[in-house]
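As the next step, I selected for study one protein, both as residues and as discrete backbone shape codes, as given directly below:
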Amino acid sequence: METIKFNNNSWHARLVARITNYFENYETPDICSYTRTVVWAIIKVLIGVIFLSLLVFSATTTLVQMLFFVFHFTFPNVLLFYAFLGAIVWGAIGGCLIASVMTIAGALVSSYIKNKIGMKVQKEPGAIKIMYKHWKEKTCKKVEFYEDTKENNGTV
């Protein structure tokens, strides 16, 4: 039976190793159980990020209310404070949007230049593509993990 090879240093293997105890429980892992574990680890991380965001938001609003109560801000000062806070938030959102657009544009330009010059490189499919393909086909092949060495550069 054919096996799928994943790098131990890949993002999904490191995520699974840090969030779950998958590698301790499965002696012969297959792609189906590994896919479920990766999805579950991503969900756990997202829940943690949402929880931390709500915690920071709650602490910030509590601090702002305490500042208003202690310093008895008048209306123009409150308006100035919220304008300053809004400028910081909108600046951060705009910076993230600009950074993501620049990253996508850079990747597109790089891809275009490589294709124009003729440096087309045949790559192995990525981990997400492999997991999705086997999930759709309902096949569960064995998974092997390898250390990052020079002879295994072609696999995921």
User: Anything to note?
Assistant: The CA atoms of residues 63 and 69 lie 10 Å apart. The chain has one domain: 3-149. The helical segments are 11-19, 22-25, 31-71, 75-117, 127-137. The chain is about 70% helix and 5% strand.
